[in-house]
Each structure stands twice: as C-alpha cells, then as structure tokens.
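haha ok so turns out i had the wrong file open the whole time. this is the CORRECT one, sorry everyone. sequence first:
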Amino acid sequence: MLNKVLHHPIRTQIIALLYVKDAIAFKVLKKELELSDGAIATHIKALDKEGYIKIHKFFEENKPKTEYSITPKGKDDFYQYITQLKGFINDVEPPQN
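then structure:
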C-alpha cells in the first residue's frame, strides 16, 4: 500500500526537494512549486504531523524567515515510497496493439 501522506503530488514534490537539499526557505519553495502561502502551509502541516520535516523559524536582518528540512524518518519513508513506485512501474508492460 502506498504511503497516503506522500502519495499526493504537492507533498511528493516538497519531500523530493527536501530529500536532495539540506534546507529550503519558504520563499524558495513557493517559487519552485508556484503555490499560494495557504497551499504550502496545508501540505507542510501534513508532512510535519507525520514527523517527515522540521520547521525552522528565525529572524534574518530583522525579518522573519522559515526554512524546512527533512528528518531521518522523512528520508526513510520517502525512499520506501519511491521504491514501491518503481516496483509498480517496472511491472507495466507496453500495450499490445
């Protein structure tokens, strides 16, 4: 059974970006995914609830900033999710015409 939290296109994109980067700022994530603040917040909340990401809030030059990073659990579960997807894809045969 595929991971229901990760098997959502936006959450898959977020966790995939975090998997290959140390941390991503909110503004960068918003630009990369072309989503509204509310949409990002909704999906970040779901990933945080599962323990897949860490949220880092701080001030830089007196301006609030938020960055996200992936947790070891997030890396493990994402890797398992991708492995399952690859298994499904490898089983697909070309159509017989």
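The chain has a mean pLDDT of 94.
again sry for the mixup
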